[in-house]
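Reviewers of the previous submission asked for a worked example of the structure-prediction workflow described in the proposal, so we include one complete record here. The input consisted solely of the amino acid sequence. No template or homolog information was supplied to the procedure at any stage.
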Amino acid sequence: MTADVLKRVLLVSVVLLLPVRAFAQEATLAGTITDSTGGVLPGVTVTATNVESGNTFVAISDERGNFRLPVRIGNYRITTELSGFTTINRNLQMLVGQEAVVNFQLAPATLQETVTVTGEAPLIDTTTSTVGANIDPRQMSELPLNGRNWMDLSLLAPGARRNETVGLVQNRQGYASTKVDGQEVTTLYHSATDAEQPGVSRDAIAEFEVVANRFDATQGRSAGMLVNAVTKSGTNAFAGTFGGYFRSDKFNAEDFVAHRVLPYSNQQTSGTLGGPIVRDRIHFFASYGFEREPKTFTYNSPYPAFNIDQQFTSHTHTFLGRLDYQFTPATRLSVRGSGYNTLFYNGGANSATVHPSTGGTRGRVAPQYFASFTQVVSNRTVNEIRGGLTDYERQDQPIVRWQGGDFPYHPTLHGSSVVVMLRGYTIGADNQNIFQDTRSIRDDLSTSFDWGGRHDVKMGGEYLRFHNQFKWCLRCNGVIDATTAPVPANLQSLFPVWNDASTWNVAPLAPITRWVFHSLSDTEHQYAIVRNLFAGWVQDDWKAGDRLTLNLGVRYDLDTNAHSEKVRFLPWLPGDLPHDTNNLAPRLGMSYSLNDRTVLRGGYGLFFAFAPNDGVQQTEGYRHRFENQILNNGRADFTTVRDGFFGWFNGPKPSFEASLQNACDVNLRPGCVYRSLVQEINYPGRQTSYSHQASAGIQRQFGSDMSLEVNYIFTGGRLEESAQQINLTYNPATGANYPFTSISTRAFPQWGAVDFELLEGWSNYNATDVTFTKRFSHRWQGSATYTLSQFKDATPFRDQWYIGSDGVVARRPIGFALAQDLGGEYALAGAYAGGGVAAGGDQRHRAVFNGIWDLGYGVQLSGIYFFGSGERRRTNFGSDLRDEGGTVGIIGSARLRRDGTIIPLTGIVGDPLHRVDMRLQKRLSLGGRREIDGLLEVFNVLNHANYGSYTVNESNANYGRPSSNDNLAYQPRMLQLGFRLAF
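From that input alone, the workflow returned the following structure tokens.
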């Protein structure tokens, strides 16, 4: 960052933070107050009282009769008062992110009188143009949910693009962000963290909002969708819940792939408690959740001594505490702390190709702390400041030990064993300890003024310090490649105690060993990166006329280490690259009311992602780690391993600096090591991914409780992630690369494979969403969405990379056409996963319905139906026939067949998905406010065979067939019994 840029950022930050006052805005109530003749009434006192907590929020109508009142979510009693006029009371519910426009007409009164008006908040929003939906408190608590992960309910929202139980709202790098109480909580340390998002108990979340397209300028770091969730808070009544939920294989149908009932057991308990400390002012809320899941993991190799069943019971703890203190109607403090702690078995279980030593435990610990202090500065101006920290730690520890304790060399956790790679079999695994810590502070100033109509302006700034530390013992005790001959007949006797590496005898493997990889580090296999992120925005919601509202916003984001700009790693990065400073994102929208029941809306905007962190942290890792490849020189003791001595070193373990002299790029000589960068690194010229988003739609309210909405949505992703092996040159005669194994024709002959984390792909998503909503009335509520869509993407065109005159890598156009499978093909997108990145594919049709019915006598029925047409999937031949030097199915297309033809990019379309989940609930009163619910939930009621994985390798005999996927969305019929006590 230049000095001038830094000064400007700091100046803006200081100005924004001067009024250290805030207001936790979860929803907004606005409207106009008139008299019986239609004339506007200034000076009317509007008081919103939260029915549950007693908190009050007050505003006074301005000279145009307008008022605007930021409030917390919940049920409200709205009172309007002006001397000489009738006082009006009205009850309504406010949802997160909602801006409800409610107008009042006051009649003159000769006597003091109060009129109570019945009616709900409008179902249509006439002030914003975003596309999204709310998952309300009733849906949060009453819909069936296999696994009880509240984020799974995001599948109900229009614009949703996932089929399975989720951690992120959209499974594509850079396209999802999760915020809880306004705090960014997304785990982002690499590009495929869908399964690593910190959990919050379903019973601690009050409700959430899913924004599928075009959120306003106050929010960012997602090129796609985002989720805004709000935690529960205490009320004026002491109240709590306790529930238990139980699943067992006794009630399950047989697995669709294994064709037998798989062992399964799961128990969950959850409790909440909240209430007043001081009525109407100070309230607390706390929750605790526990999950237990015992499992047996099997190994089915050709070696009976190694086929040891592993029993492990995973445990998950979630807890949350929240305190809300309203000092005055204009000032409020909210503090929250939460935790997520889980430990489960992770590794190659249920496999015929790995030893039980490859398995182990994975722990995740994620505490979060958050506070917001708020104040209404004036009738027109509100300011809020938020601050917090989120931590995430991942602990991967193989179950194998050294004489029951730590390994002699253990830079990370307990250390790890030597890894042995045999033909079709692997023994041992590495361990790792990963940390992500994010510190944030944010200030929002909201004000209103009149100039050509009413302007509701939000301006603010945000700073995040993103810290990511890796402690990764990657090949730090050696990886023996013993694949030059069949597996020795006495293999089982060489590893007599499977989980005690001190008993392993790898010395006899020397005759069949090709080489050993042994990484050395100058930082004891530990490294860290820091990214400082700044953002600023202005959002003006301009009511330009009685029917027209314009949403005009602009946002600017700056990341000081998004692309390793100041990292020196020659010849790939010079250490003096300029920062990516052009991330200015205009956002324009409009909402036009045809009448009080019909609104047209649309708009366009730019949305920048959080630049993927893989390239940043992996570049740093290679700066401190040399993966020494030691060729077998024929010594009999080449694989002899003793404390502090490795046979392949033929002496003491060398230092990082001494070992680096063996690298061909440092010392080109016979027997040198070609350094391979098989984890993608950054490169000059990389810029942050972004998207163009546009939408146009209409919404119509019918009666007081139904609405129909139709939206066209476009998301055009640009500069998307696509890994590429760039140490290649290309043959103009064939339009393909020269073989990577031909060292002389490599672009960089002194190097092995060099993988760049290219941000140069692109995609286009076009969809039409139809949404019907019926809110709760006449004892039922429901909603239905249908999406017709097309999703296409492309990997980048290839360039020729070379070393420039300044000694730094550069590129130029290749100058001739390459084969179809070597980049640039724009086609229907295919789902894929691997190499630290994952993405969904094209799915043409999607329909979701959910409903809740009160049947009377304390009986309630609720359910969800999900349909998704077949999703396209990327395919490959299974072998790298072009010899690109990449990893099949991850880097390089591997689409060339032996007959010279090319496999289609998305050669498989999965089967349609049909899933019906149902809950039957009976409520019994226990006296007073005590009641108990008995719950019977059935998931996949019709036992439809839903598949989430397919064999995509054409050379495999099972090509195109479904394969096992343990995601709960793809399971056979399951049953859950439960109870919920409320008091």
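The first strand starts at residue 27 and ends at 35. We consider this example representative of the routine output the project will generate in years two and three.
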